[in-house]
Amino acid sequence: MSNISRNFPLYGETCAGLAAVLWGLNYPITKWVLKAVPAGEFLVVRFSLGGLLFVSIVAMCGQDLSIERKDRSKLAVLGLLCVGLYNVLWTLGIHRISSSTSALIISSSPLLVGFFCSLLGMEKMTIRRWLGLTSGFLGVVMIMVSGSSPQTGLQSFLGGNAMTALSAILFALYAVVAKPLLREHSAIKVTALAMLGGLPVIVPFGLFISPPASWVLPGPEILLGGLYVVLAGTVAAYFLWYRGVQRIGPVQTVMLHFLTPCVSLVFAPLLLGDSSSPQKILGAGIVFFSVVIFRLKKDS
After folding, report:
1. Do 264 and 24 contact (CB within 8 A), yes or no?
2. How does 122-138 read in b/e, with b if 16+ C-beta sit within 10 Å?
3. What percentage of the chain carries pLDDT values higher than 90?
4. 234 has pLDDT over 60
5. Sign of the CA dihedral with 65 first, then 18, 135, and 102 last
6. What is the predicted pLDDT for the residue at 56?
7. DSSP category for residue 234
8. How far apart are CA 189 and CA 61, in angstroms?
9. What are the E-state strand segments in 90-219?
10. 99-106 and 259-272 are packed helices; what angle lies between their axes, rounded to 10 degrees?
11. Which residue has the higher pLDDT, 33 or 259?
């Protein structure tokens, strides 16, 4: 893996971009699967299997899961909040709003990463970049108020937006907290520990807190969708995303997450019949424009 990263100049960007594409497909496929499978139980299965696969990969690579005491607090934040609580909020939110709206709200994360990095002194913020943050926030607001779903009602729709917006904050925190851990540990090891660290939040939610539901064996197409979510949308995407953070840093990695809503907006109508209103598309355009402003290095 290290030889590939040395010989391929855009290795980090490619990893981050592939993760964004896989997550873009993950939004409509997850919502499609959740029409037939209880959300809480599916979340438990998804991350239990994902964690087990990552632990197996760590063992096959000859690594162990030990971590220094100084890194344990960061890992606790990464697992409990940025994996556990993030995915609970994201799952609850996607039930109440369209998958494309969910993807677009999560795509405010690059702006939030820039904000966190500026607070922590990790990256210098300029006037032009603050303009990017402001315009991006306005774009997200436009997306969030683009109309409620008649099936869920206004209260549920607004609740879904709020949950998804909170998960966007946690996703941004994810990249910032992961960076120092990835300086000393492999992406596979950090991913495995973070996924295991999220289970104390995910398992109680999935089995005891979320509304109980009886299992019915889903059809083969739903099983195939669930397999995609576990293998591609969880194991592969999380690993590629961590490699991106490790190689090119949190800000550039999360910037490429803007590919996610593009993929979701294309596939959501095919799988779910979601519509993309002109207001939603305009809001997305404002968010994308803000990222262009944000990435410019020279200040005006």
Report:
1. yes
2. beebbeebbbbbebbbe
3. 19
4. yes
5. negative
6. 93
7. I
8. 10
9. none
10. 170
11. 33
